């Protein structure tokens, strides 16, 4: 379920006695904390036009219901990037009773920047010192009592993936949430910065200006000095705006004059300085960090060893998905045919008789569920598990680093490599994997490319039709044509779509031994999305198509399709019908082609060559490979990008398929 | 310990010695480090973003890897590692140490 933001978050907060926000840098274990505390029943909130989501859920602690809002992982709360903007906006809209900041104990210095910024805004903060076990293993000892004294807020050591310390964290959050529960402190920077902040907040307080989101004067003063665009706009609109902005300019220029650096940068420097000074006081290195980490990094990112490893990994991933996926798919299909299918058949026939209704129901309940299962479990589940291994170990970073220059040509960056490769197994999880890309532009580009990747179902048609009847050379030709079309489409779209690809700035996380329980949980959370999004659509689609088929209404499509199918593509009419039907599942095209051919030309038809020549089989397969992946993919596209964009991409692939098919019909003959 | 070659001192046309010029970060060889001298200001948002990551003037950065084909570079700042695209790296000017 998705909520439209502002009011969504406000309404969510209204019915809960107490709410916490979870904040933290990316990849510090924030999601582990969220998942551990909340479990099922997560809703997401979106801000219009933003791709980054906020997750909302509840937890129970000592008979109290606590709302937990999981903010996107960010390094800071400026408005310079979408994730930062969303995190800050959600924080201001929700006005949580406490902010639990998850910090990475192995990188305390950089991680303390965010809690200091939250304290500047006057929010009640509790720090979770996460990955404390990893810090210990790396030879770092952290005095959390001292850290708590220096920051002036509670600090709880945690190991989130095992749930250690989380009860205490929530308890501290409850304490911080009580009015006067814990003293609220503010960090102190250099004297001249404090003077500037003081002068500005005095002015705001003296003029009695109503501050947005109930922020304290100090918080607003810091934001204005940081030249935060939103708050400057707010100040400009004030009746006292001119005086406030004059004061901002005055104190900012005094900082700039004194330090030779604009005020926003100087404040960032002071905050880093304070974070570094605090970190230095509380941590002690008892042993030099191990060199194994560095060697692993060298191995995976140096071009000489990195690229061979990358090719091996991607080939392995693809082969695993392809072979294991196919094996599981056949296995499940076989079991379904042997046990579930006859059972469902007899139940449906018992209830609905033998008529059209019963046959239509069987399309949905038998073929439909079978389709969802034989795509979902073998390919989607397998892919998610493989992805979680790459993600959890940290190898995904190396992949992104190495593939970045190639992806740039398509307007994407390195993180898009995995979904594109996965698309060759199944488009559905690949499109869900596109969530790792942060701008809508990148998501549209990558989704379009994924849709053009021949998935295993389309590969089955290429093998069953072209390899079998035309030859392996033309089959390889189809792949080459599709690859060429995909690359040109990506290259062209990159030029046509407004905007440009942002420069890459990505933190590279250390390699970590993967945790099986975390990977399984991750896999399940993603697979759940597939189950609830794609499965109902496949079922409904199967029922509708079943009805059209069983009522014989199908043949009515022959005439309207004729100009395109017979005239433009040069294919027999039945072939056109199967192309329409294959939207349900691409490999259905071939089975249906034989079924309909028998219905039309009589029982003697056993192979395609009896009613199509080799060139027609080639054209048919090319069109089948290029146009809309399948109904499940469209459903996922719609969930990720919205219906308008999903239909746009689908339409685009239909045009591409028709263009390629028409040209092939005219130019290629076997 | 590998022998470090001395780089010739840069001079003005009249021969007077000149402070070592800053070079874009991606021109540092892997394994070398430098101090950030300045960051090009034409993109204030990028400047602020880099500042939140601790990529500020006077900070020491070490280049660990430069990806081929115009790919990103891998730098270490304090205890953190970042991949920076060439376009971004070209805006960060450093003095080699």
Give the helix/strand layout.
The complex is a heterodimer of chains A (670) and B (97).
Chain A: E1 2-4, H1 5-14, E2 18-24, H2 30-38, E3 43-46, E4 53-61, E5 64-70, H3 82-94, E6 98-104, H4 108-111, H5 113-120, E7 125-130, H6 132-137, E8 140-142, H7 144-151, E9 155-157, H8 166-177, H9 191-206, H10 217-225, H11 229-236, H12 241-259, H13 263-282, E10 283-285, H14 292-301, H15 303-352, H16 356-393, H17 395-409, H18 417-423, H19 427-433, H20 440-452, H21 456-469, H22 472-496, E11 505-508, H23 516-550, H24 558-568, H25 573-581, H26 588-601, H27 614-626, H28 631-641, H29 643-667
Chain B: E1 23-24, E2 33-39, H1 44-52, E3 60-66, E4 73-77, E5 80-84, H2 86-89, E6 92-96
Describe the structure concisely.
The complex is a heterodimer of chains A (670) and B (97). Chain A is α/β, with parallel strands linked by helices. Chain A has helices at 5-14, 30-38, 82-94, 108-111, 113-120, 132-137, 144-151, 166-177, 191-206, 217-225, 229-236, 241-259, 263-282, 292-301, 303-352, 356-393, 395-409, 417-423, 427-433, 440-452, 456-469, 472-496, 516-550, 558-568, 573-581, 588-601, 614-626, 631-641, 643-667, and strands spanning 2-4, 18-24, 43-46, 53-61, 64-70, 98-104, 125-130, 140-142, 155-157, 283-285, 505-508.
Q: What key attributes describe this structure?
A:
heterodimer; A: 670 residues; 8% strand; elongated; B: 97 residues; alpha+beta; SH3 type barrels; six-stranded antiparallel β-sheet; 13% helix
Structural account:
The complex is a heterodimer of chains A (670) and B (97). Chain A is of the alpha/beta class and 670 residues long. Among the domains of chain A are: 2-177, 3-Layer(aba) Sandwich (Rossmann fold), CATH 3.40.50; 191-261, no CATH class; 303-453 and 508-535, no CATH class. Helix content of chain A is 66%, strand content 8%. In chain A, the strands form 2 sheets. An 8-stranded mixed β-sheet of chain A has the order 1-3-4-5-2-6-7-9, with helices on both faces. Chain A has a two-stranded antiparallel sheet with strand order 8-10. In chain A, strand 4 (53-61) and strand 5 form a beta hairpin. The longest helix of chain A is centred in the middle third of the chain and has 50 residues, at 303-352. In chain A, 49% of the residues are buried. Chain B has a single domain, classed as Ferrous iron transport protein A (FeoA) (SH3 type barrels). Chain B has a 6-stranded antiparallel β-sheet with strand order 1-6-2-3-4-5. The mean pLDDT of chain B is 81. Chains A and B meet through helix 13, helix 14, helix 17 and strand 11 of A and helix 1 and strand 5 of B. Strand 11 (505-508) of chain A pairs antiparallel with strand 5 of chain B, so a sheet runs across the interface.
């Amino acid at each position: 379920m998705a909520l439209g933001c502002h009011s969504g978050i406000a309404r969510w907060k209204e019915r809960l006695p107490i709410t916490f926000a979870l904040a933290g840098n990316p990849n510090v274990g924030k999601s582990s904390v969220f998942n551990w505390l909340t479990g099922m029943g997560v809703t997401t909130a979106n801000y219009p036009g933003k791709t980054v989501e906020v997750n909302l859920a509840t937890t129970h602690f000592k008979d109290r219901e606590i709302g937990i809002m999981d903010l996107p992982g960010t390094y800071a709360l400026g408005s310079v990037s979408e994730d930062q903007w969303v995190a800050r906006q959600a924080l201001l809209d929700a006005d949580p009773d406490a902010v639990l900041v998850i910090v990475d104990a192995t990188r305390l210095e950089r991680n303390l920047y965010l809690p200091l910024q939250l304290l500047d805004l006057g929010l009640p903060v509790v720090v979770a010192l996460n990955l404390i076990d990893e810090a210990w293993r790396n030879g770092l000892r952290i005095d959390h009592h001292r850290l708590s004294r220096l920051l002036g807020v509670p600090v709880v050591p945690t190991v989130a993936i095992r749930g250690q310390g989380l009860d205490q964290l929530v308890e501290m959050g409850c304490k911080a949430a009580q009015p006067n529960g814990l003293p609220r402190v503010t960090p102190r920077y250099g004297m001249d910065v404090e003077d500037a902040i003081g002068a500005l907040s005095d002015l705001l307080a003296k003029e009695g200006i109503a501050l947005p989101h109930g922020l304290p004067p100090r918080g607003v003063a810091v934001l204005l000095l940081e030249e935060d665009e939103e708050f400057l706009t707010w100040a400009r609109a004030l009746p006292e705006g001119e005086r406030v902005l004059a004061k901002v300019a005055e104190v900012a220029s005094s900082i700039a004059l004194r330090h030779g650096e604009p005020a926003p940068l100087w404040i960032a420097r002071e905050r880093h300085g304070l974070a570094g000074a605090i970190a230095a006081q509380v941590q002690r290195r008892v042993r030099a960090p191990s060199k194994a980490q560095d060697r692993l990094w060298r191995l995976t990112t140096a071009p000489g060893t990195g690229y061979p490893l990358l090719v091996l990994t991607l080939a392995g991933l693809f082969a695993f998905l392809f072979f294991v996926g196919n094996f599981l798919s056949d296995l499940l299909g076989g079991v379904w045919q042997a046990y579930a299918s006859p059972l469902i058949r007899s139940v449906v026939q018992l209830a609905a008789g033998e008529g059209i209704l019963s046959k239509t129901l069987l399309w949905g309940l038998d073929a439909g569920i079978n389709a969802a299962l034989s795509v979902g479990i073998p390919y989607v589940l397998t892919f998610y598990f493989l992805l979680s291994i790459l993600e959890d170990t940290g190898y995904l970073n190396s992949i992104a680093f190495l593939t970045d220059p190639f992806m740039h040509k398509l307007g994407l960056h390195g993180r898009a490599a995995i979904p594109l490769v996965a698309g060759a197994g199944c488009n559905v999880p690949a499109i869900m994997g596109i969530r790792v890309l942060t701008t809508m532009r990148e998501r549209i580009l990558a989704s379009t490319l994924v849709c053009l990747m021949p998935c295993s179902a389309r590969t089955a048609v290429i093998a069953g039709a072209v390899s079998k009847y035309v030859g392996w050379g033309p089959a390889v030709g189809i792949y080459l044509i599709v690859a060429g079309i995909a690359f040109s489409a990506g290259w062209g779209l990159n030029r046509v779509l407004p905007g440009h690809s942002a420069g890459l700035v990505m933190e590279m996380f250390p390699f970590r031994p993967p945790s099986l329980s975390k990977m399984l949980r991750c896999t399940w959370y993603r697979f759940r999305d597939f189950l609830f999004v794609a499965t109902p659509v496949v079922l409904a689609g199967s029922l509708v198509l079943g009805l059209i088929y069983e009522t014989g209404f199908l043949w009515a499509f022959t005439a309207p399709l004729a100009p395109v199918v017979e005239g433009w593509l040069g294919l027999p009419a039945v072939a056109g019908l199967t192309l329409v039907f294959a939207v349900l599942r691409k490999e259905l095209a071939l089975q249906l082609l034989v079924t309909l051919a028998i219905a039309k030309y009589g029982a003697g038809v056993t192979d395609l060559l009896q009613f199509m020549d080799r060139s027609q089989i080639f054209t048919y397969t090319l069109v089948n490979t290029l146009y809309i992946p399948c109904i499940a993919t469209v459903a996922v596209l719609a969930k990720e990008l919205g219906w308008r964009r999903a239909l746009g991409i689908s339409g685009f692939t239909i045009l591409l398929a028709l263009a390629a098919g028409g040209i092939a019909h005219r130019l290629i003959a076997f | 310990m590998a022998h470090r070659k001395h780089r010739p001192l840069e001079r003005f046309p009249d021969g007077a010695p000149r402070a070592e010029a800053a070079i874009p970060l991606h021109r540092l060889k892997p394994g070398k480090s430098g101090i950030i001298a300045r960051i090009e200001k034409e993109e204030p948002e990028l400047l602020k973003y880099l500042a939140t990551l601790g990529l500020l003037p006077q900070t020491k950065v070490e280049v660990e890897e430069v990806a081929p084909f115009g790919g990103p570079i891998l730098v270490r700042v304090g205890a953190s590692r970042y991949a920076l695209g060439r376009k971004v790296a070209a805006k960060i000017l450093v003095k080699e140490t």
